[in-house]
Write a structure and sequence with these properties.
This protein is mainly beta. It is built from 1 helix and 38 strands. It starts with 5 loop residues before the first strand and ends with a strand.
């Protein structure tokens, strides 16, 4: 009996869209706002109601740290393995023992604080909503008010970029003095400015007047960024700017960076994640897995430990180990460019995978979106021309499968468990 098989179409020249592979972390209930790793395996999550979580095993497990307050915590940063800082609503916290104990310094000036960044253990900045910032040179004992500049990003040698309304500002002495002012023609206000190296800088904004721009010469000239291909109508408004906004950007290296965008202004899989591999000159739009979508707004953040392992924080926390893209298969190349029909898909309890005819010694392997073997999470029964799979211990999400015959991979596909 012949069965209808759907061909896998491999896009060679239209590589601007793929499906991002993210898994949601199983964490204590809460609204999470930021993440930072102070060492290779040691990281911190902060959120509302004084929530602080710490991991020492690279995010496998997390435990609560009691910081003694219930303020909504918005940002965390460690300039060294032992010294770290957290800010939030009317709160400033400091640790000197790797995050086990935190000293709380409440300051009414830090109401609505939403970002903390330190160049060294003593030199750092706290940013407050509505375009203002504070600078300390003594580890938070005293602060100097710096109105009108935020989204500061800097290197240890003092190079600093920041935003002031429609201007990008540049400093060579850690924001003590501003050497250059660049008009970029976007109402940036308090959104995002990041740089991959001293020359490549990107800036973006969201809301009604959204936009995204790049400089390859240290801010002297700027070029508006657009996405290629058929998704341009979805991503761009009538003025040629990205839909509803660019909300965060993070460079994992001098060439590879990531961003969060909102293309439609509502829930759904059509907005979320972009990636560059050439210092911000070009960006790829990566469609999010519909089962793992998040709501993107100016509070959404993206953070990467390296070019592969990263997080999206948007109340919930999502993790990727593949740079946000589909994991590279470790199986042998397909002998046939086919993907069997599976129905229903998505499913809650069971589904049926159609098989090509005349397959011998058939096996199926099932993997999570993170690439972990989850074959034991399903019961599989083999029939002449189909495989019946039943959910046993599988969590909701996307799964990948490969079908082998006589030890060789003959087909592959994916399905979603609701």
């Amino acid at each position: 009996m012949k069965k209808l098989l759907t061909a896998i179409i491999v896009f060679v020249c239209c590589t601007f869209v793929s499906e991002a592979q993210w898994t949601r972390l199983d964490l204590p209930s809460g609204n999470y706002c930021d993440i930072f790793f102070s060492a290779e395996k040691t990281g911190f999550l902060v959120g509302d109601s004084g929530m602080v979580l710490k991991t020492v095993d690279d995010g496998v497990t997390w435990r609560k740290i009691d910081v003694g307050i219930k303020s909504n915590l918005k940002s965390v940063h460690f300039p060294s393995a032992n010294v770290g800082y957290i800010v939030g609503d009317s709160a400033f916290l400091k640790t000197v023992d790797g995050g086990e104990r935190w000293e709380v310094q409440k300051d009414s000036n830090f109401r609505w604080a939403n970002r903390v960044k330190f160049i060294s253990e003593s030199l750092g900045f706290v940013e407050v909503m509505y375009s203002s910032s504070y600078k300390t040179t003594d580890g938070g004992k005293t602060w100097k008010y710096g109105p009108g500049v935020n989204n500061l990003n800097f290197t240890r040698d003092g190079l600093t970029y920041g935003i002031s309304e429609e201007y990008i500002l540049k400093s060579s002495d850690s924001a003590e003095n501003w050497d250059s002012f660049y008009y970029v023609g976007l109402p940036l206000y308090s959104n995002v400015c990041r740089f991959a190296d001293e020359n490549n800088v990107v800036a973006g904004c969201g809301g009604f007047m959204s936009g995204f721009t790049h400089s390859a010469d240290g801010g002297k000239t700027w070029k508006s960024l657009v996405f290629p291909g058929s998704y341009s109508q979805m991503l761009l408004d009538s003025s040629g700017r990205i839909g509803k906004g660019v909300y965060d950007i993070f460079f994992a290296s001098s060439t590879v960076g990531y961003g969060i965008i909102d293309t439609k202004g509502g829930l759904g899989p059509d907005f979320g994640f972009i990636k560059t591999k050439n210092s911000g000159t070009d960006w790829t739009f990566i469609r999010l897995n519909p089962a793992l979508y998040f709501y993107s707004d100016r509070n959404s953040k993206v953070y990467f430990k390296n070019e592969n392992v990263g997080y999206i924080i948007d109340g919930k926390v999502f993790k990727t180990t593949t740079g946000g893209e589909e994991p590279v298969s470790v199986q042998e190349p397909l002998l046939k460019n086919i993907s069997p029909n599976i129905s229903p898909n998505p499913f809650k309890n069971s589904a049926r995978i159609e098989l090509p005819e005349n397959l011998l010694k058939t096996q199926i392997k099932i993997f999570t979106a993170a690439g972990e073997d989850c074959s034991h999470c399903f019961k599989s029964e083999f029939f002449e021309n189909y495989i019946a799979i039943e959910r046993i211990a599988a969590s909701a999400g996307m799964y990948y499968y490969t079908i082998e015959s006589e030890g060789k991979t003959v087909a592959e596909g994916k399905f979603v468990v609701e």
